Every structure is written in structure tokens, then in C-alpha cells.
């Protein structure tokens, strides 16, 4: 029993390391994203008033801004999921499905260390979101 407990603690420690590493990567990407947005804003300000901008340029700027916002939101969402997974590691609920309360397979957690749900519950959750037209 002690061997299994020790092995499980080592696995959890590796998962924590993976989560912290991914968190650091995301924070770096968020910083880069902020720098890109600031550069875009500065560039647009340097170009002058909006009235002198060609409509095609304005549309291109808008598309770039929308992409930037979407990427930023995606990064923030994943960062939040990782922070929640680290909290679950701290409180002992890591690897337990938030819907059915059963263990999430190690294979799933190896693939997605911040997974909240077992595969069956995740599929049901995604199907409900699709039916209700959720984002």
C-alpha cells in the first residue's frame, strides 16, 4: 500500500510540475499578447485620425483586434483552468470528476492535466452546450 501511495504522490507531483510549466508558458503568451495589442494601438495612433484611414485598412485593423481579443480570452480561460487544477491538487480533489464524482482516468489527465470531467461527463457537457448554442 505504501508503494502505491508513494507512486501516486510522485505522479501528482509530476502533474503539478506540468501544470506550473504550462502556467508559465501561458503567462508569457499573455504578456506577449498585451505587447502586440499595445503595439497595434500605437501603430493606429501613429497613422492618424480614423477619417484618413482607408476603409480596407480599418476593416483589417478591426479583424486583427478581434483575433487578438479572442486569443487573449482563450489564454486567460486556460490559465484559469490551470489555476483551478492547482487548487484541486492542494485540496485533494484533483482527478475527481466535478459532475459524477468518479475518478478521471490517468490517461485523460496525462493528456489534459486540468481536466474537470471524466470523458463520459465531458461528452455530455459538450452535447448540452451544443444543443443550447453555448459558446
Written description of the protein model:
The N and C termini lie far apart (45 Å). Helix 1 (2-47) packs antiparallel against helix 2 (55-91). Helix content is 76%, strand content 0%. By secondary structure, the protein is an all-alpha fold. The mean pLDDT is 86. It has 2 domains: 2-92; 95-135, no CATH class. The chain has 4 helices and no strands. The radius of gyration is 21 Å and the shape is elongated.
Summarize the model shown.
This protein is mostly helical and 135 residues long. 76% of the residues lie in helices and 0% in strands.
Roughly how much helix do the residues carry, as a percent range?
Answer: over 70%
* Structural category: mainly alpha
Give the termini separation.
45 Å
Strand tally is 0
Give the overall form. Answer: elongated
Order of helices and strands: HHHH
Give the domain tally.
Answer: 2
Essential attributes:
135 residues; mainly alpha; 2 domains; 4 helices
Topology:
Blueprint lengths: L1 H46 L7 H37 L14 H6 L7 H14 L3
Helix pairs in contact: 1-2
